[in-house]
Design brief:
The protein is of the alpha/beta class. Helix content is 39%, strand content 17%. The two termini are 31 Å apart.
């Protein structure tokens, strides 16, 4: 199949592209390279430097290619930043996705895998969280993702655009060989930030230690990026074989507190870096743990690398061997 991958030079998107490439799919990547890196992609993969907010770019891309399906990873991902700059999140995540969806429909490409988020749930009413639980985001990032899910439902009803939305629960880790990992201009994720603190042996801040959890810090469900990409492959296969849209949680269903994560980083790195606590970040949910029974039952997905030890070990291998990330060819 020929697959368009938006945001395909980014952290998760590039891991996905390599897996598609290994399975002999034809892949075209669309990425504005604000966060993505050409070095993450096989040299034979076509890279279109462009943006989903550019309608002309999208219509040109679809007019020149006949895609079987689209995987949409392009977007902005910081909950904290979304509370400070909601326009950026609704413009990039929601409007950008709408542009892509409209271009797909007008080009007759009616299969889409969408990167959604556990952020759509806000503070959940129960743990673990199932797909049918209330969706009440506590920040514009989660709201921007939920709005796309609603748009997809309408385009399914009106234009037969079939989609699978995957609600991520904290993607983390790096490739098993340590060659590909997270490299963001401004890192906001707990594990890479803690790993960098260990590498530099400097003080690390956990935001909030007064939540109603076992140790007062937020609890999250971490999924290895390789397992996450495997879920996309299964979703793509299912979407091409049948004609119904679905929403799935993607997470191993095991929660770890921020303190527990930091302690694993200390263990793996061998560095007992100092720790302090800051105030809560606005919009942070206290606990997010996936009930992934649906995707396991319907698609046969099972995580292989999502134990916290493996996640941290691969992240440590990546950051310790690439302290400056992908280097000067970032094309900023």
């Amino acid at each position: 199949m020929k697959i368009l991958v938006t945001g395909g030079a980014g952290y998760i998107g590039s891991q996905m592209v390599r897996q598609l490439f290994e399975k002999n799919h034809k892949v075209v990547v669309l990425d504005n390279l604000k966060e993505g890196h050409r070095k993450t992609l096989p040299s034979t993969i076509p890279l279109i430097t462009g943006d989903v907010n550019d309608q002309n770019c999208l219509f040109k891309l679809f007019s020149e290619n006949r895609f079987d399906a689209v995987m949409h990873f392009a977007g902005v991902i910081s909950m904290k930043e979304s509370m400070q700059n909601p326009y950026k999140y609704f413009y990039t995540n929601t409007y950008g996705a709408l542009n892509l969806i409209e271009a797909m429909v007008k080009s007759g490409v009616l299969r889409l895998i969408f990167s959604s988020s556990a952020g759509v749930y806000g503070n959940p009413t129960r743990i673990p969280i199932s797909e049918n639980d209330p969706q009440e985001p506590t920040n514009p990032y989660g709201e921007s993702k939920l709005m796309v899910e609603k748009i997809l439902a309408w385009y399914d009803q009106l234009f037969n655009l079939r989609s699978v939305s995957l609600r991520y629960f904290n993607a983390a880790g790096a490739s098993l060989d340590g060659q590909f990992g997270e490299d963001h201009q401004e890192e906001t994720h707990l594990i890479p930030l803690a790993v960098k603190a260990a590498l530099e042996n400097r003080e690390f801040t956990i935001y909030g230690n007064d939540y109603e959890t076992k140790d007062g810090t937020c609890i999250r469900d971490y999924i290895h990026v390789i397992d996450l990409c495997e879920a996309h492959l299964l979703a793509l296969d299912s979407l091409m074989k049948n004609s119904s849209s679905h929403i799935y949680n993607v997470g191993p269903g095991i929660g770890f507190s921020n303190i527990e994560v930091v302690n694993i980083v200390k263990k793996v790195s061998g560095v007992d870096f100092p720790l302090k606590f800051g105030s809560r970040r606005p919009g942070d949910a206290k606990e997010l743990i996936a009930d992934a029974a649906k995707i396991k039952k319907e698609l046969g997905w099972e995580p292989k690398y999502s134990d916290l030890q493996t996640i941290v070990e691969t992240a440590w291998k990546w950051h310790s061997t690439h302290p400056k990330g992908y280097g000067p060819d970032k094309r900023r």
